[in-house]
């Protein structure tokens, strides 16, 4: 840092007030361009290596792939669904499936489902995220380069992202975060390039980078609504830029010229991104033209714009007194009962009720038929035409044995904590009437008509509040190798889901399919309705989550998120960052705030802390990166919805830019800008000497980043057969690692 100098004037000079935000350098010297290229190339190759290696592992649905893989399948089958996020990134994923000819038949229902057995092109899907995540690294490097920083600073900033376990995790799965992160990085890069053209306004390059910034911004807001934070960052810089241009004494612009500058920025950075953003919704509506699981979130007018899909063509309204077959969604088992009893005593010594067995059977059988009855019977001459709705209370009679479905406080065969399901005779059912009542609770939470095939529901026992459930472990010989059915106390478990597979003996009138007539409504009406629903549902995400965390903990990596576990192989993917990179960012942020505060204090005492160019770099370029970090971080403190560590990744990316710049600041590269500007020709070679402390610090940081990345690799890539001791070594902070005992 330069020595403190007394000012020769009574007025404190503002740092480079006439320059635009962010302050950038002249182009790098040709002799150093090769070093920039070589460093960037090595980091880019390393980024591709870390993100593509073992990309096919695990070959199971991981974390939120259960959502975004499913949405891609819905796009491919043109089936309407509802999601909280805008469509751009999801359409990209679906485009990959379309390009390779996938039909979208797999619906990604549960974490842990196998991709290989279901013939899912998951590696191609993941390759999209891996490619975008890899390309983010050279964008970070070039942003720092065009902001005027040394090769060392560019290398540190890009390496923090390249070797970050959290960025690698999110770039290896079918998620939206890689698209969001590269869009944020591109927005900042394009704005830096636009600022480079501040001395040639309205030139071709000026317009090119201005519109490029607007397009990149549109990608952020079209991926996730947190993209508005990127608008805030770039918008803050633009407002400051326009404020400087408004000053006639410093800019020399007439009001007409100023309005041209204002209009160009408003057009390219507000109107163009908004139009592109709307265009993705139009594509979304055009592609999703068939009825689907998202219908229930929309109004009847909206639903009338959707045609029938294959499922809807088979779906029929369920009415009371219909004979139906249940199907468990996860196992495909049909609800079944037969004239056989539970054994008196199980292998572990527990005693059953010896009631009639209720099981799941995977093939068609007369014993799969059940009659759905109302809570209170209708008069015999009025039992036709009463639809079943979500939240209705119902009873079920097993046709083959003329018994009634019931669950009670007796442990199930395999799960001592779950309740046994059985059936009882009409006489016993009358005595134990309350134990035969169930609620049909639609997964959508609505009270719509219950339809075969299409309506997914949980069957909740009215008295004990357990949900009818099944799983993949088959019963022993006494249960004929069929699926166990029991009452799950965790009613929110998604594997509690059932459907009515078909109605037996449906009359020709009800069996006939009448094609749905669709109508058109204006795009703006559909868009506004969807926006209202998206924001309403987003604000409703206030329930607690075991891996949710508060923003104050994110920069310090207090806890992460478990993405995937595999008990037989003792493997786990645990989402967390690179401690070295994250804490370097924290230190640089603190130093930046301290430097600004100290400089302002010194200015009050008429003492110059930094040279003109160094001061401009600190306030404008680093200030821009700090603004970007702040706008991507602090708004989360105002949100009431669930928050997770991965929400910090865009802010982490911005902090990486600030950290790289910070090393130039700490090791005196800013002072050298003024030395070079003021040096005579004979001294110029001296001022351009190698900065050995900076190079040594860079090497040290790279070694530490690599060591931390490699140490946590087993959790990043889900490596199998880790010893208890190895897992315990990695259980830092409040990490909740499985298999640590």
Strand proportion, as a percent range, falls in 5-15%
> What count of structural domains?
2
Radius of gyration over all CA atoms, rounded:
32 Å
> So how many helices?
24
Uncertain runs are 1-21, 23-29, 680-688
Mean pLDDT level: 90
Number of strands: 16
First-last Cα distance: 51 Å
Helical fraction equals 40-55%
Largest sheet: 12 strands, antiparallel
> Which overall shape is indicated by the principal axes computed on the Cα atoms?
elongated
User: Structural class, from secondary structure content?
Assistant: alpha+beta
Transmembrane segments: 36-54, 123-141, 148-168, 174-192, 204-223, 229-246, 258-280, 579-598, 618-637, 649-667, 696-720
Domain MIR: 315-375, 385-443, 447-503
GO molecular function, one term: dolichyl-phosphate-mannose-protein mannosyltransferase activity
EC number: 2.4.1.109
Tell me what you see in this structure:
This protein is 45% helix and 12% strand. Residues 1-21, 23-29 and 680-688 have low confidence and may be disordered. It is built from 24 helices and 16 strands. The chain has 741 residues and is an alpha+beta fold. The protein has helices spanning 30-52, 65-76, 88-99, 122-146, 151-162, 165-170, 177-196, 204-223, 228-246, 248-251, 255-287, 300-303, 310-314, 426-431, 508-511, 523-539, 579-604, 612-633, 649-666, 669-678, 681-687, 692-711, 713-717, 724-729; strands spanning 5-6, 323-328, 334-341, 356-361, 370-374, 393-398, 403-411, 419-424, 438-442, 457-461, 467-474, 483-488, 498-504, 561-566, 571-575, 607-608. A hairpin with an 8-residue loop joins strand 11 (467-474) and strand 12 (483-488). It is elongated, with a radius of gyration of 32 Å. It folds into two domains: 5-15 and 30-283 and 550-729, no CATH class; 317-505, Trefoil (Acidic Fibroblast Growth Factor, subunit A), CATH 2.80.10.50. The strands form three sheets. Strands 2, 3, 4, 5, 6, 7, 8, 9, 10, 11, 12 and 13 form a twelve-stranded antiparallel beta sheet that branches.
């Amino acid at each position: 840092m330069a020595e403190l100098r007394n000012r020769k004037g009574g007025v404190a000079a503002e740092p480079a007030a006439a320059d635009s935000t962010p302050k950038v350098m002249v182009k790098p010297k040709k002799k150093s361009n090769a070093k920039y290229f070589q460093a960037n190339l090595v980091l880019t190759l390393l980024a591709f290596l870390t993100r593509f290696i073992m990309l096919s592992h695990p070959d199971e649905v991981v974390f939120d792939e259960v959502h975004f893989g499913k949405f891609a399948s819905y796009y491919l089958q043109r089936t309407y669904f509802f999601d909280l996020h805008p469509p751009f990134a999801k359409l990209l994923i679906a485009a990959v499936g379309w390009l390779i000819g996938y039909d979208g038949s797999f619906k990604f229902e549960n974490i842990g489902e196998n991709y290989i057995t279901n013939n899912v092109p998951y590696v191609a899907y993941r390759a999209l995220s891996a490619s975008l995540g890899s390309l983010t690294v050279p964008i970070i490097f070039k942003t720092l380069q065009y902001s005027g920083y040394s090769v060392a600073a560019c290398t540190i900033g890009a390496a923090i992202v390249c070797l970050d376990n959290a960025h690698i995790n999110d770039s290896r799965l079918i998620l939206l975060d890689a698209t969001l992160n590269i869009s944020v990085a591109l927005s900042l890069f394009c704005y830096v390039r636009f600022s480079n053209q501040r001395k040639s306004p309205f030139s071709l390059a000026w317009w090119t980078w201005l519109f490029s910034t607007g397009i990149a911004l549109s990608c952020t807001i079209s991926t996730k609504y947190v993209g508005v934070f990127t608008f805030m960052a770039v918008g803050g810089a633009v407002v400051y830029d326009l404020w400087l241009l408004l000053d006639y004494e410093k800019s020399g612009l007439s009001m007409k010229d100023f309005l041209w500058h204002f209009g160009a920025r408003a057009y390219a950075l507000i109107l163009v991104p908004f139009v592109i953003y709307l265009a993705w919704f139009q594509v979304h509506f055009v592609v999703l033209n068939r009825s689907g699981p998202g219908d229930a979130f929309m109004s009847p007018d909206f639903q009338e714009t959707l045609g029938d899909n294959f499922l809807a063509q088979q779906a029929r309204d369920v009415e009371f007194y219909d004979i139906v077959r249940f199907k468990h969604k996860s196992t495909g088992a049909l609800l079944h009962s037969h004239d056989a009893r539970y054994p008196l005593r199980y292998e572990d010594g527990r005693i059953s009720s010896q009631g009639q067995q209720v099981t799941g059977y995977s093939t068609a059988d007369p014993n799969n038929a059940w009659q759905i009855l109302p809570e209170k019977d209708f008069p015999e001459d009025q039992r036709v035409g009463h639809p079943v709705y979500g939240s209705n209370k119902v009873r079920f009679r097993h046709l083959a044995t003329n018994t009634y479905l019931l669950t009670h406080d007796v442990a199930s065969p395999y799960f001592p904590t779950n309740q046994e399901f059985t059936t009882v005779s009409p006489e016993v059912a009358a005595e134990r009437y309350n134990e035969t009542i169930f609620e049909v609770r639609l997964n959508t939470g609505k009270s719509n008509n219950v339809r075969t095939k299409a309506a997914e529901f949980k069957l909740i026992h009215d008295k004990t509040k357990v949900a009818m459930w099944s799983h993949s472990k088959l019963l022993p010989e006494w249960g004929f190798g069929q699926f166990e059915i029991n009452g799950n106390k965790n009613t929110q478990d998604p594997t509690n889901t059932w459907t009515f597979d078909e109605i037996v003996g449906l009359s020709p009138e009800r069996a006939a399919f009448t094609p749905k007539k669709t109508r058109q409504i204006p795009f703006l009406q559909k868009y506004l309705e969807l926006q209202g629903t998206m924001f309403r549902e987003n604000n409703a995400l206030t329930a607690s989550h075991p891996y949710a965390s508060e923003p104050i903990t994110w920069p310090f990596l207090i806890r992460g998120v478990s993405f995937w576990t595999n008990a037989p192989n003792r493997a786990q993917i645990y989402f967390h960052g690179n401690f070295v990179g994250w804490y370097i960012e924290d230190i640089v942020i603190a130093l930046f705030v301290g430097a600004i505060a100290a400089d302002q204090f010194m200015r009050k005492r008429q003492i110059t802390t930094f040279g003109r160019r160094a001061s401009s770099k600190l306030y404008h370029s680093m200030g821009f990166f700090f603004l970007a970090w702040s706008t991507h971080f602090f708004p989360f403190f105002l949100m009431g919805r669930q928050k997770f560590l991965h929400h910090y990744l865009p802010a982490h990316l911005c902090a990486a830019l600030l950290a790289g710049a910070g090393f130039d600041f700490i090791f005196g590269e800013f002072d050298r800008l003024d030395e070079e500007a003021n040096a005579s020709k004979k001294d110029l070679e001296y001022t351009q000497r190698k900065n050995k402390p900076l190079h040594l610090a860079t090497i040290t940081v790279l070694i530490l980043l690599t060591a931390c990345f490699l140490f946590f690799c087993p959790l990043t890539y889900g490596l199998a057969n880790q010893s208890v001791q190895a897992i315990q070594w990695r259980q830092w902070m409040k990490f909740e690692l499985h298999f640590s005992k």
